[in-house]
Design a protein that fits this description.
The protein is α+β, with helices and mostly antiparallel strands and 355 residues long. The chain has six helices and 17 strands. The chain has helices at residues 2-37, 93-104, 245-248, 250-256, 312-325, 334-340, and strands spanning 54-62, 68-75, 81-83, 89-90, 107-111, 134-140, 150-159, 167-172, 178-182, 207-213, 219-224, 231-233, 262-265, 275-281, 285-294, 297-306, 328-331. Strand 10 and strand 11 form a beta hairpin. The longest helix is centred in the N-terminal third of the chain and has 36 residues, at 2-37. The chain is elongated.
Length: 355
C-alpha cells in the first residue's frame, strides 16, 4: 500500500514538473515571437520627418587592400538626382526614393551582437576596415536639431538566410550594437545601375525606314511593309538577292527596346570613324545613332530631328531627345551593337557553289 502511495506521489510530482516545463517553454517562445515579430521600433527614429531635406546619398563599399569606393548621388537645384561618378548624369529617381523610404521605414526586429569582433560574421564590418558591410549615408542642407548635416548613416550587412531578402543585419554608424531588421533598402553596388535608364524607344510599327551605313559610307536601306509589318531590303542592284528575313526585322526590334551599359560625355569618345543607323518614323521623326568601337565596346551618340512637315508634337519629341541625350555617349550592349553594325553581306544568302 505504501508503495502505491509513493508511486502516486512520484507521478504527481513528474506531472507538475512537465507541466511547469511546458508552460515555461511556451512563455519563452511567446516572448521570443513578440520580440521577433511585434517590434515597431524604427532603426532611425526621426529620419522620416527629415526626408525632404536629403540632398546627398553616399554609398561606400570595401575593396579589400584597394581601399574603398563610393557611389555619390546629389540632388541639383531642380531636385533632379545625379550620379557624381558619371559626371552628373541623371540618376534613377525612383531607385533613389526607394532607398530613402526604405531606410526611413527600416524596423528593428531584435538586437543582435554588440561585440565588434562578431560584426564581420553578420557582414557588418566597416568597409575601411576590410569589412563587407556597405555604408549608406544621407546628408542634408544646413543643420538639423543642432547636429551636423548628416541625417542618417548606417552599415548594411548580410541578408538573413531564408528570409527572402526582407530581413538583414544593420547597425548605426559609430555604434557597436547590431540589429536584425526588416528593410526594403536597395543596396546597389554598381554605378551603372543607379543611372536613369530612360532612353529612346520607337515602336517597330512606327519605324518606316532604316538606313545603316558603315564607316566607309557603304549603306543599305530597310523598308517596312504596311500589311505584314516586316522589313524588306531596298536593293538597287539588277537582281534582288535572297535575304535572311529574320535579320531584316532586328534593327527595328532593337530601337524599340534600346538600352545602354554605361555612359560618358560625348567628347570623351572619338567618333571620327563611325557607323550610322538612321531611323525614319511615319510621322516625321528622324533618330540617328552614330557608333564607334567594336565587340563589347561599341559607343554611340544619339540625335533627333523632325522632318519639315512633321507636326509640333514630333518637333517637341526631337527637342526632348536632344536635350536629354545629345551631350552623352552610350555604351551599347554587345547583342544590340552587333545588330546595328552588321554589314549588308550578313543579310544576304550567298548562292551555293553549284548554282
Amino acid at each position: 500500500m505504501k508503495a502505491i502511495v509513493r508511486l502516486t506521489l512520484l507521478l504527481l510530482v513528474l506531472t507538475v514538473i512537465v507541466t511547469l516545463g511546458a508552460w515555461w517553454a511556451l512563455n519563452e517562445r511567446g516572448q521570443f515571437l513578440n520580440t521577433e515579430q511585434g517590434s515597431t521600433d524604427l532603426l532611425l527614429p526621426g529620419f522620416s520627418e527629415n526626408l525632404s531635406l536629403a540632398s546627398k546619398v553616399t554609398l561606400t563599399f570595401g575593396q579589400g587592400i584597394r581601399g574603398t569606393r563610393n557611389i555619390t548621388l546629389k540632388a541639383d537645384e531642380a531636385g533632379t538626382w545625379r550620379v557624381e561618378e558619371r559626371l552628373g548624369y541623371p540618376a534613377d529617381g525612383g531607385l533613389v526614393q526607394h532607398l530613402l523610404l526604405g531606410l526611413a521605414r527600416t524596423k528593428i526586429i531584435a538586437p543582435r551582437t554588440a561585440d565588434p569582433e562578431r560584426h564581420k560574421a553578420l557582414g557588418l564590418g566597416a568597409p575601411e576596415d576590410f569589412g563587407t558591410g556597405a555604408r549608406v549615408r544621407i546628408d542634408g542642407e544646413g543643420q538639423i536639431d543642432g547636429q551636423t548635416d548628416t541625417l542618417a548613416s548606417v552599415l548594411v550587412g548580410n541578408v538573413q538566410t531564408n528570409s527572402g531578402g526582407a530581413r538583414r543585419y544593420m547597425r548605426r554608424t559609430g555604434e557597436n550594437q547590431s540589429y536584425l531588421v526588416t528593410s526594403t533598402l536597395p543596396v546597389v553596388s554598381k554605378v551603372v545601375d543607379w543611372l536613369d535608364p530612360a532612353f529612346v524607344a520607337l515602336p517597330p510599327e512606327r519605324v518606316e525606314t532604316i538606313v545603316i551605313a558603315d564607316s566607309e559610307g557603304t549603306q543599305y536601306r530597310l523598308v517596312r511593309e504596311k500589311i505584314s509589318g516586316d522589313y524588306n531590303l531596298d536593293y538597287s542592284g539588277e537582281e534582288q538577292p535572297t535575304t535572311r528575313r529574320t535579320l531584316l526585322n532586328e534593327p527595328a526590334r532593337i530601337i524599340s527596346r534600346l538600352r545602354f551599359d554605361d555612359v560618358l560625355p560625348s567628347e570623351a569618345i572619338n567618333f571620327e570613324t563611325a557607323w550610322q543607323a538612321v531611323f525614319y518614323t511615319d510621322d516625321g521623326l528622324i533618330v540617328t545613332l552614330t557608333m564607334t568601337g567594336a565587340g563589347n565596346a561599341v559607343w554611340t551618340t544619339l540625335s533627333a530631328q523632325a522632318s519639315p512637315d512633321a507636326p509640333d508634337s514630333v518637333r517637341d519629341e526631337a527637342h526632348t531627345i536632344n536635350n536629354r541625350l545629345s551631350k552623352w555617349a552610350y555604351k551599347l550592349p554587345f547583342e544590340q551593337a552587333a545588330v546595328l553594325t552588321q554589314p549588308l553581306s550578313a543579310l544576304i544568302v550567298s548562292p551555293s557553289p553549284a548554282s
